[in-house]
Specification:
The chain is of the alpha+beta class. The chain has a single domain, classed as 2-Layer Sandwich (Alpha-D-Glucose-1,6-Bisphosphate, Chain A, domain 4). The chain is built from four helices and seven strands; from the N terminus they run βααββββββαα. It has a seven-stranded antiparallel β-sheet with strand order 1-7-6-5-4-3-2, covered by helices on one side. A hairpin with a 2-residue loop joins strand 6 and strand 7. It starts with 7 loop residues before the first strand and ends with a helix. Pfam families: Polyketide_cyc2 (PF10604). This is Polyketide cyclase. InterPro entries: Polyketide_cyclase/dehydratase, START-like_dom_sf.
């Protein structure tokens, strides 16, 4: 890592939908592949809706690998963040976060962040460096397309 390497990336956008609807699309893992801007998520079983810190949800990736996502931040309708890990393993330290700021009953500002400042797994660094604000914005744009329809 270089001294000036950016390890916290984020993107924001306003979505013309209520915060509750947008949050539901994020907090229900079965919905996430519908709007994933990284084309990385294949599927998640129904019934894994996140309810709080400590929840773990499983996601199958497009390469058939499974990730257990450990929820470390949660505020219903406002914030959710998780640390992905291989099944049964400790998370290697990269965090995905969603923050929602209701602007009105029908508008919400969504900020999507990827923080890999604590990533310890050397083989994941190339992929972490490839995660750009544009890729995060792509997820928000796809999320908006689903929420606004």
């Amino acid at each position: 890592m270089t001294d000036n390497e950016q390890r916290l990336i984020s993107a924001s956008r306003d979505i013309a939908a209520g915060a509750d609807l947008v949050f539901e699309l994020i907090a229900d893992p079965a919905q996430q592949p519908r709007w994933d801007g990284n084309d990385n998520l294949a599927e998640a079983s129904a019934g894994q809706r996140v309810r709080g810190v400590g929840d773990v949800f499983a996601m199958t990736l497009t390469n058939s690998a499974v990730r257990e996502n450990h929820v470390v931040e949660f505020e219903e309708g406002r914030r959710i963040a998780w640390l992905p890990a291989e099944p049964g393993a400790e998370p290697p330290g990269h965090l995905w976060r969603w923050d929602l700021e209701p602007l009105s009953d029908t508008r919400v500002r969504v900020t999507h962040s990827y923080d890999w400042s604590n990533l310890t797994d050397e083989k994941r660094l190339i992929r972490a460096r490839a995660t750009t604000a544009d890729k995060l914005r792509s997820s928000i744009d796809r999320l908006a397309a689903v929420a606004e329809q």
